[in-house]
Specification:
The structure is a single chain. The protein is an all-alpha fold. The chain contains seven helices and no strands.
């Protein structure tokens, strides 16, 4: 099987896992599922000769697991530092910069204790990965990030907008 086709199959696995992940309310479940998806996505990028994205995603797989147990901001800062080293060491151009910027947002989100902020940071980071994949032209990768951002937005709506709308009571009209 050609590397490009295999990369698209692995991106499809990533897609399924990420869509499922962002519909959960439990932050630790989201992070565990994102860890698994990052592993497959890293292979996808490796097959497309994108070392920065591949190594960032493999490191992100570990980072998500760490962030389940520990929410220390120093670990978040250390993770961003490691991602910067990866981006500098594997730098291949503008795509390396976009991948690093996306990772900064996602790292901040994964180490927050606030589920709402997690989802916002995932939407911003996912949007940057979407831009990355459009420039790279990986069709399933584009679909992964478009659906990831959309799925995250749906989850955000379900848990933070819809719930607030249902808590608003109608004013009583006196007769």
């Amino acid at each position: 099987m050609p590397d490009f086709l295999l990369s698209q199959v692995l991106a499809s696995i990533t897609l399924i896992i990420e869509c499922y992940a962002m519909q959960h309310k439990n932050k630790n479940t989201i992070l565990a599922l994102l860890s698994v998806s990052c592993f497959f996505n890293g292979i996808h990028y490796f097959l497309l000769a994108q070392p920065t994205a591949a190594f960032i995603f493999w490191f992100s797989s570990i980072r998500f697991l760490i962030s389940i147990k520990w929410k220390f901001q120093w670990i978040s800062a250390l993770s961003i530092g490691v991602s910067l080293l990866i981006a500098c060491y594997t730098y291949i151009g503008f795509l390396s910069v976009i991948g690093f910027m996306a990772t900064v947002f996602i790292t901040i989100g994964s180490f927050t204790k606030n589920d709402k902020l997690l989802r916002i940071m995932m939407m911003v980071g996912g949007s940057l990965w979407l831009l990355h994949n459009i420039i790279l032209w990986t069709p399933v990768g584009i679909l992964v990030e478009a659906i990831f951002v959309g799925s995250t937005a749906v989850g955000f709506y379900r848990y933070y907008i819809k719930d607030n709308e249902s808590n608003v009571t109608e004013p009583k009209i006196k007769s």
